[in-house]
Amino acid sequence: MTVNAGSSSLKLALVADGERIADEDIAAPGGKLDKDAFATFAERRFDCSSHRVVHGGPRFRTATVVDDEVRLALGSLVDLAPLHTQFALAALDVVRDLAPDRPAIACFDTSFHATLPEAARTYALPWDWIERFGLRRYGFHGLNHGYVARRAAQLLERPHVGLRIVSCHLGAGASLCAIVDGHSVDTTMGFTPLDGLVMATRSGAVDPGLLLWLERHGGVSADELDDALEHRSGIAGLSGLSGDMKELLAAVDAGEARARLAYDVYIHRLRAQIAAMVASAGGIDALVFTGGIGEHSRRVRDDARRGLGLLGNAAVLVVEAREDLELAAQASQLIGAES
Fold first, then answer.
1. How far is 238 from 59, CA to CA, in rounded Å?
2. Percentages helix, strand, coil for the chain, rounded to the nearest 5?
3. What is the sign of the dihedral through the CA atoms of 93, 96, 99 and 105?
4. Model-level pTM?
5. Which fold has domain 2-137?
6. Alpha-carbon span 286 to 164, nearest angstrom
7. Fewer beta carbons within 10 Å, N or C terminal of the chain?
């Protein structure tokens, strides 16, 4: 059973032999878990549960069987990604209570980026800060970027070795990943999921000096900054709309100036960061679009590629986001290694 906790919903699936045989989405407004609906799904037979945890911090670099000591350690990481981690751990606790005899496995979005070279993961900050606080570029969406790496190689009928991919995970949250030989070598998100691309309601990369200026001269508190950067920025903040790409494009076509600006900013940042990922990969063999927007908006895909002559003859693929299959694969590999 795979358990994928988002910020407002819970995606459950049963996976056997690499195929999804049952699934259910449970609404969870405000991150509140419907334990009865969850328990009903979990009454089905399963051998183990595999849970998506957004942030593994400096300790958890691979999938891990959750015992009481690991569960305590995971609780200490909540402040690194509070919206997702609290909900994921609540779901994990429910499953451990329902099925205490079956392994519960935590799989981390940050794990795929544990291979980032030192130059790509290190911030140019005081060294004592880096050591004391464990500061580094962690990267996110790793479960799906990892799946994309495997699936793209299958579609291209090529081995991982020698294959250079730029994976574009475009949804409400968005990140890019440069993948070489099946390993992450660069990514756009950083210490938190706020960095990088313009997203639905998140700002993406912002000059840190601008934020300091807002605190010192604008009287904007840290809590206000947190709320604005997470929930009132991105295409929603610029356009005055919801942050839904379909709604934004409809407003662009209707001639709304702020919607046009929001879309142009989104595409500008996306193009620039694709180019940066190509440089980090040392070239490109495949550009892969995934996630809700990446899979379903041909307009975004076409506009993102326009003007990027550096793509050359690279294949352009659309791959369905399948964190459930990656969760199942990591759990199977871990259990097989331990048995």
1. 37
2. 50, 20, 35
3. positive
4. 0.93
5. Nucleotidyltransferase; domain 5 (3.30.420)
6. 7
7. C
- Residue 30 tokens read as 């405000």
Four-CA torsion 65, 24, 4, 66, nearest 10 degrees: -20
Tokens 């409809």 belong to 250
Give residue-wise pLDDT tens across range 87-103. 899 889 989 998 999 99
Domain ranges of the chain: 2-137, 157-318
pLDDT at 7: 62
pLDDT band at 337 (very low <50, low <70, confident <90, very high): low
Residue 226 in tokens:
């947190």
Using pLDDT thresholds of 50, 70 and 90, give the confidence band for residue 49.
very high
Q: How do strand 19-27 and strand 9-16 relate by DSSP bridges?
A: antiparallel
Query: Terminal CA-to-CA distance of the chain, rounded, Å?
Result: 19
Res. 280: pLDDT tops 90: yes
Task: List 113's β-bridge partners, or say none.
Answer: none
Query: Of 101, 109, 253, 324, which residue is the catalytic one?
Result: 109
The interaxial angle of helices 208-217 and 222-231, nearest 10 deg, is: 130
Average pLDDT on 251-266 reads 98
For residue 28, the model assigns a pLDDT of 72
Fold annotation for 157-318: Nucleotidyltransferase; domain 5 (3.30.420)
Instruction: Round to whole Å and give the CA distance between 215 and 195.
Output: 19
- What confidence tens digit (pLDDT) does each residue in 76-91 have? 998 888 778 888 998 8
Closest CA to 167 of 190, 143, 191: 143
In the chain, the amino acid numbered 277 is M
Whether 223 is catalytic is no
Identical fold, 2-137 and 157-318: yes
Q: Which residue's entry shows tokens 């799906």?
A: 144
The total number of residues shown for the chain amounts to 339
